[in-house]
Write a structure and sequence with these properties.
heterodimer; A: 376 residues; alpha+beta; Cytidine Deaminase, domain 2; 10-stranded mixed sheet; 4-stranded mixed sheet; 27% helix; B: 98 residues; Ubiquitin-like (UB roll); 3 helices; elongated
């Protein structure tokens, strides 16, 4: 079940001038890479790699500067197929680098506003893992079949609106307007407290397009949560309730992801309204806790996180999903199934055309490939 | 009788989504639920800490009895052959730090 990797990885942090500030050993989480490679096998070869099959991870060096790593390459073999999936190292390790920089900032080794650059080096090691309970119990992986439903996404797309930051490498996601509408209403009703739920539906296969996609069929409002202004705790009873609801529907739906609200109007209530409108909190984002929750519950590369931000400007609905092993804002299709206009759902999404316009009118900005600014 | 059967025939452990499932057998007499959870988290590659480094609290839910197993319970005494337990965390969303 594990990704075999015969290297250790070290974060190298430097001033922009090139002086080494510090190095730190990393304990990378390879699960997003493994899951990304599995999905790649399903999308390109129709093969769902199970736990017993072989998977190897190795660094691809920067041509001019080994041992620094340019890419991570996961090689998988299953059902007579073999394939490789590459992940850009600067993206994959960005969150880990930010966490290390934040810790150094907290300890006073960096000052707020310091800009640093990072690289990741890899060195061969012999793997020797502790046995744990191995001698006291036997564990065998029981791979779960994944049988995508046949679905014509082209037809669905014809009556759906493209929304958000589209990227051609993303799996297509179709969200019914009625589902988003209910989520928007629940967000408004919750007021200054966060609320949330679970997205359920099907992984589908579009044979004409030769790809898979997600069809969200419903959401299950999360119950037995602890809801606060800046926090929403999903408890064990929440998950029991969700599993029971899915079982009662008897539709073979998968847990495709989750949603939650950000009551930004409440977070920003002390700021002037003009400032609230341009605040970064007024647009959808995933916090460190949100990302950790997604990693805990939804590691599969096809899973999604929907965020509805309630700010002075109204509601803003954004979708996030795994791309190259990292959670990114992404596009989706809003399937029109509400005939009254305008719906809350429709007014909360950023349609793809307006995303393009916004990109064109924005000043181009230079962003370093692997740079981090020290901030709390 | 039950303890012998659980050692031989075993039981299943699943994550919340049901997409990661492990079959467990040959459990030693003294393995507790908390030890089992710790081992299963590693096998399933589930995180043990939250974003701030605090330990995540996972519960082992036994649907057959509609309850959470206590960490101190012995696996061979509490489970029956063919049981399925689900590892369910208490986990936070939110926070303003991106």
């Amino acid at each position: 079940m594990t990704v075999h990797c015969a290297h250790r990885f070290v974060l190298d942090v430097r001033a922009l001038g090139g002086d080494v500030l510090f190095t730190e050993a990393l304990e990378p989480d390879w699960e997003p890479a493994r899951q990304g490679a599995r999905l790649n096998g399903l999308r390109t070869r129709g093969v769902w790699h199970d736990g017993d099959a072989e998977s190897l991870l190795a660094p691809v060096w920067q041509a001019s500067a080994p041992p620094f790593v340019h890419m991570l390459r996961v090689r998988m073999r299953a059902a007579g197929h073999e394939w490789c999936t590459d992940f850009k190292a600067s993206e994959y390790f960005a969150d880990a680098a930010s966490a290390v920089v934040a810790a150094r900032l907290a300890s006073g080794q960096l000052a707020p506003g310091d800009r640093v650059r990072f690289a990741v080096a890899a060195y061969p090691v012999d793997q020797a893992r502790p046995d744990g309970l191995r001698s006291r119990l036997s564990v065998v992986d029981r791979p779960q079949p994944l049988a995508p439903k046949k679905r014509d996404f082209s037809a669905l797309a014809g009556r759906a609106i493209a929304c958000g930051d589209t990227d051609p490498s993303d799996v297509e996601v179709v969200l019914p307007e009625s589902v988003v509408e209910d989520i928007c209403h629940r967000t408004k009703t919750a007021g200054a407290r966060e609320t949330g739920g679970i997205l359920i539906g099907h992984l589908c296969c579009d044979e004409d397009r030769g790809d898979v996609g997600l069809e969200v069929t419903a959401h299950i409002p999360a119950r037995h949560t602890v809801s606060e202004r800046e926090k929403l705790t999903f408890t064990s009873d929440t998950w029991t309730d969700v599993r029971n609801a899915v079982a009662l529907r008897k539709a073979g739906e998968l847990l495709l992801g989750w949603w939650h609200s950000h009551p930004a109007f409440s977070w920003c209530a002390r700021c002037p309204v003009d400032r609230q409108r341009v605040c970064r909190l007024a647009t959808g984002f995933l916090s460190a806790d949100d990302k950790a929750l997604h990693r805990s519950i939804f590691p599969s590369a096809f899973t999604q996180a929907l965020v509805v931000t309630h700010s002075v400007g109204g509601l803003d609905t954004r979708l996030f999903g795994w791309r190259n092993g990292v959670l990114k804002s992404r596009g989706f299709r809003l399937c029109r199934d509400i005939h009254s206009e305008p719906s809350l759902a429709l007014s909360s999404v950023q349609q793809a055309a307006s995303v393009v316009e916004a990109a064109c009118t924005n000043q181009p900005r230079e962003v370093g490939d692997a740079q981090v600014t020290a901030s709390r | 009788m039950s303890a012998v059967a659980i050692a031989e025939r075993g039981f299943e452990v699943s994550d919340v989504t049901g997409q990661k499932v492990l079959a467990v057998s040959n459990v030693a007499d003294d393995v507790t639920v908390s030890e089992l959870i710790r081992e299963m988290l590693a096998k399933m590659r589930l995180p043990v800490n939250d974003a701030a480094g605090r330990p995540l609290s996972y519960h082992a839910r036994l649907d057959r009895e509609g309850r959470h197993l206590q960490g101190t319970e012995r696996v061979r005494e509490s489970l029956q052959p063919g049981d399925r337990i689900v590892l369910q965390p208490n986990v936070d969303a939110g926070g303003l730090v991106a």
